[in-house]
Amino acid sequence: MNFFRRLTKWITSGRDSSADQPVPSQMPASVENRDYTVPNTPQTPSAPASNPSPPEQPQTSNLAGLDASRFQPLSQDEALDATSQPGWQSAYWDPLNVIPSTSLPRIRVIDQTMVGMGLIDAEELADIHHIGEEMAKYRTDYHVIQHAGHAAVQAARDARAARKAEMKQRAAQRKQEREAAIAERKATDIVFLGRGVSRGLADRRSNVERLQASSLPVLSSPADLAQAMGIPVATLRWLSYHHPASKTTHYHSWQIAKRSGGVRTISRPHKNLEDAQRWILESILAKLPTHDAAHGFVPGRSTLTGATPHVGAKVLVNVDLQDFFPTIDFARVAGLFRGFGYSPAVATILALLTTESPRRVIRSGSETLHVAVGNRSLPQGACTSPAISNLIARRLDKRLAGMARSIEWQYTRYADDLSFSCRESEEKVAYLMARVRHLTSEEGFLVKESKTRVLRRHAQQSVTGIVVNDRPSIDRKTIRQLRSILHKAKSEGLERQNRIGHTNFSGWVTGMIAYVEMVNPQQGQKLREAYEAL
């Protein structure tokens, strides 16, 4: 059909350009030599041949029964004249999917012009219009089917759009429900507290019988622990979350010098964490027994009770454990709480609340980060660290006490200071030291060889600063120092005696006097009277 349109445009434009272009004087030879008559009878030969061949079958023409004048060729001039007739004009363009009928004058002109130009012959043109007539018979059904097809396609599109909208609505609803579930879980549960420390948070199985037997609070989930502490779950998560690098920290840290050289880092928790640790100490740790050999940070025991069993010993061996608190890491503390009967979830949180990583402060521009540079372990300065260390070392105390008893020696421990003594034979010192190294290593500790001391009767024997040669007493150097301070303070004042740089010198003096009173009441009483006389 586009061809017909182009032909029409060419004919109409030829009217304007006919003056400039020469009009052919005759039709093309391919058109002039054609025979457009309709044969009625087949042609027969004029004379029979000697060997006659079968007669030729008549050829059926596509023009049979049609008005042959419709397909007679027109010249360009005739076509131009035909376009000026009233029937040439049409109020509409022919549809693209319809072969125009020959009943329209302009269609006849176009047909005859195409034949005249040799673009198509009459039989081909007749075939085209025959196909058009056959198509016209089914055009109504075609439109019905086409309409039904369009309707089906539109219905399918609408159904897909409806399904898509429904799926989007369901996805939005699921997202909303998921966000609500996450918000509720954050408010009521803890499932993640940082990389490397959250493995046991999904296990909420506690040994209720074991907890009840030890008179410990029965806790199975993070919500149980938060409720027992009297804090929201969100606060518990904030206090126990492990950050490899954080802008803030729950501890205030500083360093103090050691007597043996080097520095010791003290980390004191801020109030919120300190309150949580205080609850753990009072509600859990304080209810569990320590070994009889442990005297450090145990109610009713002190350096004096730890030194008394070694008074009058023939030989005294002092052993120091290396990096005592840093050796007790997060995994050991979590295992300790699981051993009490707590679920892995509760044990994990309790271990996170009572351990901390050593951190280095890194400043970049205006930003300050506290970066973890080691594993989490017991911090020196937390109220829970001494009690946890005593409970962790119960097995060590039991094994060392049994070994010492087997060779008739005495054993006590004050924090990381181990003391062994005997009153009879000193032949087994080498055996004792070998066994101490072996047992401490098996229990996850190390002996600091540089601080190991073997003291005999002829030397000053001391345990945690208390002399035990004949009776518990304070060493003479300390007593002389206190007497000198109190004597000079009468004339010069107490603060002028602060040559060792104590921030609270008066408190240090009164504390030392109280310590002397505990070990030797008579000496302490004299010092107390001198202090009160200032």
TrEMBL record:
This is RNA-directed DNA polymerase. PANTHER family: NUCLEAR INTRON MATURASE 1, MITOCHONDRIAL-RELATED (PTHR34047), RNA-DIRECTED DNA POLYMERASE (PTHR34047:SF7). Belongs to the bacterial reverse transcriptase family. It is an enzyme of class 2 (transferase). Residues 247-468 form the Reverse transcriptase domain. Signal peptide: none annotated. Residues 11-28 have a biased composition (Polar residues). GO terms for biological process: defense response to virus. Residues 11-63 are annotated as: Disordered. Its EC number is 2.7.7.49.
